[in-house]
Write a structure and sequence with these properties.
- By secondary structure, the chain is α/β, with parallel strands linked by helices.
- It has a single domain, classed as Alpha-Beta Barrel (TIM Barrel), CATH 3.20.20.70.
- Helix 3 links the parallel strand 3 and strand 4.
- Helix 6 crosses helix 7.
- It is globular, with a radius of gyration of 18 Å.
- Bound molecules: cytidine-5'-monophosphate (C5P).
- Cytidine-5'-monophosphate binds next to strand 8.
- Cytidine-5'-monophosphate (C5P) binds next to strand 8.
Length: 254
Amino acid sequence: MGEYHGYQKMTESTINPETVDPKVIVALDFPSADAALHLAQALDPVQCRVKVGKELFTRAGPALVEQLQQFGFDVFLDLKYHDIPNTTAQACRAAAELGVWMVNVHALGGRRMMETAREAVDKTTQRPLLIAVTILTSLDANELHEVGLPGSPEANVLRLACLAESAGLDGVVCSPWEVSVLRETITEGFRLVTPGVRPTGVEVGDQKRIATPEDAIRLGSDYLVVGRPITQAENPPAVLAGINASIHAGVAPR
Ligand code: C5P
């Protein structure tokens, strides 16, 4: 557990007021709690939030989420619930009671599922942000047609984002390339959460529709989900600090 020793966390004196609402959500895509906590200990909750997805949650469960919260991190529980309205709503309620900052459902579960989930979190004392996944970015037009969704992926994303908004959800996950058109269509305050973010010069990996952090924010993203550029870096806190610096430099002129 020692390889990040020597990396300094930000101290009170280095806190930038701009980062009190951290824009970067680090995807903790690790197979064990130990690995996730090892990285989390090197990061600063003032500089980022963290995302716990299906693999890590299935292995490490609510206990890990609680540990991350004890470290001071806001947790995005990325379990993409998709079930009948009652089951989805109860799962969202359980996530809210776990104290997570953000939780998500599949918009393809339909209006009633999303509305019921929203009503369930509305009744909780620590209401998380409830956002929707529209169309998985892994699906191309042919695959969408195969499951009975005609039209382009973009048209489906837009339609489902509007449905999520009208069901009272707080935002959607979308690729940086969809941010501009969504910003033109949906109301101010509807959160756009974008994976597919790659700092200049960093390996793209399997992501296709990518943007740099500063471009994604400039286009209108509220939060950036960044995994491997940080988790696989030799010095994760330094990469995170670089991303935050580029975001603030890029956004400052606005
Ligand atoms: O390592 P990388 O930065 O590509 O990780 C991106 C994260 O965002 C992963 O946890 C991935 O599952 C998630 N994600 C994505 N594309 C989507 C939805 C979620 O990459 N459309």
